[in-house]
Fold this protein.
Amino acid sequence: MQVFLSLTRRELASYLVSLSGYVIVAAATFLTGFSFVMMLTQLINEPSPMPITEMFYVTPFFWIILLLAAPVITMRTFAMEKFAGTYETLMTAPVRDGQVVLAKFTAALLFYLVMWLPMLACLAIIRHFTGDHSPVDWGALGSTYLGILLVGALFLSMGCFASSLTHSQTIAAMISFALCTSLFLLSFLPTQLPISAGWAAQLLSSVALFDQMHDFARGVVDTRSVVFFASFTAFFLFLTLRVVESRRWK
């Protein structure tokens, strides 16, 4: 456990002391703030009974942050170490491959969660200037953050897998973005299928990220969605571990 914690601290520190880490947080904060301004403008012109979390979820910038953040955060996890020549040094140290994979994933996930903290500031601003606590549904806010955590964990596991395949951070980011975007676009495929393809549409709807995140934003936590995200995250981490272990076969 001590080894895992030390590796996680090392990886997390690499995000927090680097310029790229601050650029990622700044970009996510800018897009979150821009979405916040769009929501306020919409509410001034047309009041809505929809929870703020649900309004934020339907803005395009929400999904832009989700789809772009994971590739940028994880592209360095393995690819940069291979390019810099520190990968072999790390893997020959007295640590297990599974500890390295989990530590890199955990550090990326913690940094990802830090990136979303400015959204809380937006909600605090609404509460402060309206003096009304009703705009913020704490249950919906908690489930929205749970959805952000689960979607992010899945995308980050895909990013770790992509980074483990190559020495190039750019190629790792491109592979990760392609995987995340492909999975996201599956959300819209069921509506394009004919009615006779009922079982196919039902299967695809079960992996529809857009619909599942919609439930989280409305304050609905479906255990099937939690199991789906946890299972696929574990699957891609397993694939990452197998790629890391493959160096012994060469």
